[in-house]
Write a structure and sequence with these properties.
This protein is an all-alpha fold.
């Protein structure tokens, strides 16, 4: 019977860090999204209030601009993007350590007593958590109280060499390759969508300006369109669709090439080297992605 590895089969620390990362990522992009939407709406109210004797529209525009300022300050102070990136760093570190432990590769090579390798693994998890102490307050407690080494992990570790090799190729390499390929295509589509949205908005602004040349008495929302175009560009830069598409595509190809390098493993030493090459490829993409956050 085939063994399938899901996120629930990994240590509770992975699940907690992964969940926290996803939550903070949503907060971050929701914050940016609302900031840009309110900025456009505020510009729209400011446009319609021009020349109006009643101050109602001007008051609404002012309130909206204050709201965008509040969101900007909140993003700066709470830094949900930091928790997002740190949570992802912890989750990916725990995940790669878990796979190395299950595969009995460096630094968790086989020995007479499983308890020794258990302690080694738990100590490594403690080190990962200590290096990211700022994340502790954001981690959920439910998954963390579970045994860091699950029954499925122990079951996998007991498999023979060929079984572990086949399982790793199926559950780790193939799944990762599919995930990176899917994400690459998704980000490529989104990058194209937002790029053409920006082009259309710029085209509309140009058309309105040309109309104003011949009909100067018309009141056209050129500034509002310009704010909208700038907001879309800001969103595109925040989401990093182009960069992620290229990075994910490169990693997917690298994973496939590594998978194809070896179809037969003859001993534990070869297997350990194979695992290290694969996990380094996964870690390299994540490290580069994490570094881009600080650019």
């Amino acid at each position: 019977m085939e063994i399938n590895i899901t996120d629930n089969d990994l240590p509770g620390l992975y699940q907690s860090a992964n969940h926290s990362s996803i939550i903070e990522q949503k907060k971050y992009f929701n914050g940016i999204g609302w900031y840009l939407i309110l900025l456009i709406v505020a510009a729209l109210f400011a446009f319609f209030s021009d020349g109006e004797p009643e101050p109602v529209l001007k008051i609404i525009a002012t309130i909206l601009f204050l709201a965008t300022l509040s969101i900007m300050i909140w993003l700066r102070v709470s830094r949900p993007d930091d928790i997002w990136y740190n949570g992802r760093a912890v989750a990916e570190s725990v995940k790669t350590r878990s796979w190395r432990w299950m595969m009995r590769t460096e630094p968790y090579i086989d020995c007479e007593k499983l308890e020794i390798m258990r302690k080694h693994f738990v100590n490594d998890l403690k080190t990962i958590l200590k290096q990211n102490e700022s994340l502790i307050g954001k981690l959920g407690i439910d998954a963390s109280i579970e045994d860091p080494i699950t029954e499925k992990m122990i079951e996998v570790r007991k498999l023979d060499l060929q079984e572990r090799f086949n399982l790793y190729r199926r559950e780790r390499i193939t799944n990762q390759a599919l995930w990176y390929t899917k994400k690459s295509k998704f980000n490529k589509r989104r990058a194209g969508l937002w790029f053409w949205t920006t082009v259309v908005l710029h085209a509309i602004a140009i058309i309105l300006l040309l109309i104003n040349i011949y009909q100067a008495d018309l009141k056209l929302p050129v500034e509002v369109i310009a704010v909208a175009a700038s907001s879309v560009l800001t969103w595109l830069q925040a989401k990093k669709h182009n960069e992620l598409s290229s990075s994910y595509s490169l990693t997917a190809h690298e994973i496939i090439l590594i998978k194809s390098e070896t179809t037969i493993i003859e001993n534990e030493e070869e297997f350990s080297e194979y695992i290290m090459n694969c996990e380094n490829a996964f870690s390299r993409e994540h490290t580069q992605w994490f570094a881009r956050k600080n650019e």
